[in-house]
Amino acid sequence: MEIVGYVLSPVVWLRDRFASWWDGYLALVDVAAENARLRAELEQARAASLLASEDKAELQRLRELLGLEALRERPAFAARVIAKRFGPQAVLKTFTINKGFLNGATAGTPVVTRNGVVGRVLRAAPHTATVLMLTDSGFRLAVISNESRTPGILTGSTERRLEVAYVAQNARIAPGETLITSGADGSFPKGIPVGVVTQVMPGNEILFLQVHAKPLVDMDRLEEVLLLKEKGSAPPLLPPAGPQVRTEP
Length: 249
Description:
CATH superfamily of the largest domain: Rod shape-determining protein MreC, domain 1
Strand order of the largest sheet: 1-2-5-4-3-12
Radius of gyration: 33 Å
Structural class: alpha+beta
Helix content: 25-40%
Number of strands: 12
CATH topology of the largest domain: Thrombin, subunit H
Strand content: 25-35%
């Protein structure tokens, strides 16, 4: 028995050590699997948080778009900017939206944001459309200054500069005035902000001043826009602002 004990003791010791090592290995495998699962859940939670933040920001932008006074007169619908093409290599300053003529985005449709005029639809496919931006040299828009009520024709010049043509030499327009749509061209409703006058100088021609302005909309940060339909084609998004009735206590 003594001899058997000497023989079996190392075997039992090895068995116990192996069993302890195996249990530890299984525990480590379980911990690694748990860590992998927790990492996956953390990544999913981060992705969901980012999506929620983006959805919240988009909702805020759409709510601000719905604050336009023009929506009380004209029906409108929102569109997302899906591609941009402007810069020194672009022939035309344009961008593409995810709405086409099947949605009402026909050529000439005014495009705006909460800050003001963006441009108008240049051409449209069934489900997408190209918008010619306000800053393109081929863009034309009838405007009027908000303070001195000086009319003119606004044209694009550079990425961040506009020009106002046919402003009379005796006009009282001054830097700092806001330019708004006059409604004379029949496409944009009257009163939508367009830009701010930055410089007024005597022109090369005797009859007109040289007026420069900057757009109110940051064209580099466009994500969602509103397209204004023809008046009477559908109910406006916002109800008309009725007279306020005061009630005596």
